[in-house]
Design goal:
The complex is a heterodimer of chains A (619) and B (80).
Chain A (H helix, E strand, L loop, with lengths): L11 H5 L6 H13 L8 E7 L7 H10 L4 E5 L5 H6 L12 E5 L2 H4 L12 H25 L3 E5 L20 H16 L5 E4 L1 H8 L1 H4 L2 H7 L5 H19 L5 E4 L10 H8 L8 H17 L2 E6 L3 H10 L10 E6 L4 H12 L6 E4 L3 H10 L4 E2 L9 H8 L7 H24 L3 H8 L1 E7 L5 H10 L3 E2 L7 H9 L3 E9 L2 E14 L9 E9 L8 H15 L4 E6 L11 H4 L3 E2 L10 E6 L2 H5 L6 E5 L2
Parallel strand pairs in A: 1-2, 1-3, 3-4, 4-5, 6-7, 6-9, 7-8, 9-10, 11-19, 15-16
Antiparallel strand pairs in A: 11-13, 12-15, 13-14, 14-15, 16-18, 17-18
Helix pairs in contact in A: 2-3, 3-11, 6-7, 8-11, 12-14
Chain B lengths: L2 H15 L20 H15 L5 H4 L5 H10 L4
Helix pairs in contact in B: 1-2
The chains are: A alpha/beta (619), B mainly alpha (80).
């Protein structure tokens, strides 16, 4: 590979992959990066002005910047001399062009009364001190703005290491946690009007790490660096990521593979019923990933498909499968064929009239990723872990779609604020169970069991214990035979304003007497069950209504309910009585199974369902 | 103290102080290593704490200026 005397150095990215997160690894790799800085383009000078010492951050920052593919040249202003550094027009801060100016001022350092002295302060005094703190930061930012065109990144306040009032904090008229939130809110508001100023969410970094791991009291006392080495690495990673997002346009299109990316398994081999997608693991991992993708769609990221598959199979799956979160129409470009992926990506870029650098590929296959990396170096190829459990985090961590503007953040905050208020109103307004159920805005969809829902239906039959009238554990083959013999087999999904509960109900009604289809006088409900996720929502009423209508439409005049008590199914014991069934004449009390009858008049079968929810019969 | 622990100490010092492992000897002292400045002293101690999952006493923090001192301190902390 290498000839004597002139060994080829490995690519920098390969060396960076050796990073193990330990301090020694950062310090060593920082030297490697500095030796090979030229490979990363012109260095970007990043000034850090802080109320604590920050020089220790240097190796972390240099390495994390290199991982985001830029060369960072950090400049650390002398500790605690923030204003002096900013106001010295001829000082070192402005001696060379500045790409980014980071201002990190903590309450702990500048307003300790708001931290350990918090309990002794009145709420008014606390608010005054807070306003002073924010005003100080604002004047620093304005002073930088007047003197430099650098982007300014302002740290918000992380959660304190300890709460001065301890357990009592949440009950205080102004809780310390609330004060921190108010601080960060005020910072956002005060800085919003100053151009090219952004918030750095140190609070979030601390939250992700946990305050116990974030702070290092010993290091703080010995060196005035308040954060643990792990926190220094995490803060530097976030800083580098945000800096990269400030001067690099985000990708616009998320190009997705299908097999083992959007669902588990291979559609062409496993078929619609065989792929993993839906409510149960491992399908649920793919559904969860689709939800993450949907959140990118909602942010304005375009979605596209590049898959080696038969397009007709994929179209059929999107038309039929109930476990999908993403819809066919969510994809603005689709390349589904057997050509290579580089060709597909070129076609997507051409179709959307975008450069290849606007594309980010998410594909579970390392071979495809390597191929695209080699053929199309402009495309962002996202590293994908082996397990689908990590897909969403990998997409988030890539930063491929990072956008940072304060106005945008404000918009998000407003939305969150409004939904919190809405939830609060819901709780306040809830007078009765029916009111609460109405307020849940449930949407129930019901359909005939088909190949895509069969696995989940069999699973529910196998594991539902509480709301289960007969606890009959039919297998897939039995179920298919019953359907072939004319059984009404329905699934039910329940969605409400707080989310989708998934496929949570099954009803199975067979012609009675057996073999009487297609003109059976009655249908017997062989199995009727609901997942405990939706107990107490009256959703069973909707499912039974659908069974009754279909039985009536098939010409039956009677619906027969059975109840077989088990150790656990008491929740379903009163079901048929509540739904207006009458115990079968002549049946002895306590006879098993207890049989119940409901006459299917034209009127009953078409009677409006409860006004508590919206029902949609999809098939 | 096992060879394994000595090797890990050597490797950690080499990484942080930018020296070949062979130059980290049982008697290496801060005085003879120009890259062992006060900033790298902090990096070195945080690196040792991470490598051996120990917490070095603040009292020892400024005293660990040689390989023998580091070896003795880690032994006191139960590193075998």
């Amino acid at each position: 590979m290498s000839t004597a005397g002139t060994p080829t150095p490995p690519p920098l990215a390969e060396l960076l992959a050796e990073l193990d997160g330990a301090p020694a690894s950062y310090v060593r790799l920082a030297r490697v990066v500095e030796d090979r800085r030229a490979e990363l383009g012109a260095p970007r000078r990043i000034a850090i002005l802080a109320s604590f010492t920050t020089e220790l951050l240097a190796p972390y920052l240099v390495v994390e910047a290199a991982r985001r593919r830029f060369a960072a040249a950090p400049y650390f202003a002398p500790f605690g001399q923030i204003e002096q550094a900013i106001l010295d027009d001829t000082g070192p801060l402005y001696a060379e062009p500045l790409a980014l100016c980071v201002i990190a001022i903590r309450l702990e350092d500048t307003a300790p009364a708001l931290v350990d002295g918090f309990v002794g302060l009145s709420a008014d005094a606390a608010r005054r001190l807070l306003t002073d703190h924010v005003a100080r930061i604002e004047s620093c930012v304005r002073a930088v703005r007047q003197r430099s065109a650098a982007r300014v990144l302002v740290w918000n306040q992380p959660p304190p290491r300890r709460l001065a009032a301890g357990l009592a904090d949440p009950g205080l008229p102004l809780a310390q946690a609330e004060l921190v939130a108010a601080c960060n809110r005020q910072l956002a508001d005060q800085l919003a009007a100053i151009p090219d100023v952004y918030l750095f969410d140190a609070h979030r970094v601390a939250t992700e790490l946990g305050t116990a791991a974030f702070y290092d009291p010993k290091l703080a006392l010995l060196t005035r660096m308040p954060f643990s080495p792990r926190a220094q690495a995490a803060l530097s990673a976030q800083l580098a990521r945000q800096a990269a997002a400030l001067w690099r346009a985000p990708c616009k299109v998320l190009v997705l593979d299908l097999d083992n990316t959007l669902w588990g398994g291979v559609l062409g081999e496993d078929g619609i019923a065989g792929i993993a997608l839906g409510d149960e693991y491992p399908g649920s991992a793919f559904t969860a990933f689709q939800r993450v993708i949907a959140s990118y769609r909602d942010r304005g990221v375009l979605l596209a498909i590049a898959s080696k598959n038969n397009e007709a199979d994929v179209v059929e799956l999107f038309a039929q499968h109930t476990g999908l979160v993403l819809r066919w129409g969510d994809f603005v470009a689709r390349q589904i064929h057997w050509n290579d992926k580089a060709t597909s990506l070129r076609a997507i870029a051409a179709e959307l009239n975008l450069g290849l650098d606007a594309l980010a590929l998410f594909d579970d296959s390392p071979v495809e990723r390597a191929w695209v990396r080699r053929e199309l170096p402009e495309v962002t190829v996202i590293d994908v872990p082996a397990s689908p459990l990590g897909y969403g985090d990998a997409l988030d961590a890539s930063g491929a779609f990072d956008l940072v503007t304060i106005t945008r953040e404000d918009r998000e905050r407003t939305r969150l604020y409004q939904s919190d208020q809405a939830r609060q109103r819901l709780a306040d307004a809830t007078g009765s169970v029916d009111d609460f159920l109405r307020a849940l805005a449930m949407k129930i969809s019901i359909g005939a069991v088909g190949p895509d829902t069969l696995p989940r239906v069999v699973q529910l039959l196998a594991k539902t214990n509480q709301f289960n009238t007969t606890t009959r554990r039919h297998g897939q083959a039995e179920l298919e035979a019953m359907i072939a013999a004319g059984a009404i087999a329905l699934w039910m999904r329940v969605e409400d304003r707080f989310g989708d509960n998934g496929l949570v109900g099954v009803a199975l009604a067979v012609p009675e007497p057996a073999g009487a289809a297609p003109a059976a006088p009655a249908f017997r409900i062989d199995a009727f069950l609901m997942s405990c996720r939706v107990l107490g929502r009256r959703a069973e009423h909707a499912l039974l209504g659908a069974v009754a209508r279909r039985a009536h439409a098939a010409g039956a005049r009677t619906l027969i309910g059975e109840f077989i008590p088990s150790k656990k199914n008491a929740p379903a014991a009163g079901f048929y009585r509540e739904e207006g069934f009458t115990p079968q004449a002549g049946a002895e009390p306590g006879a098993h199974p207890a049989r119940w009858h409901l006459a299917l008049s034209d009127r009953a079968a078409s009677a409006p369902l409860s006004d508590l929810f919206e029902v949609l019969e999809v098939s | 103290m096992t060879d394994d622990v000595n090797t890990r100490i050597q490797r950690t010092l080499a990484k942080v102080l930018d020296l070949p492992v062979s130059q980290i000897r049982p008697d290496t002292h801060q005085k003879s290593v120009p890259t062992w400045d006060s900033l790298h002293h902090v990096h070195l101690l945080t690196a040792l704490e991470a490598e051996f999952t120990v917490s070095i006493d603040p009292e020892d923090w400024l005293e660990l200026t040689s390989v023998p001192a580091i070896v003795a301190c880690l032994a006191r902390l139960g590193v075998r």
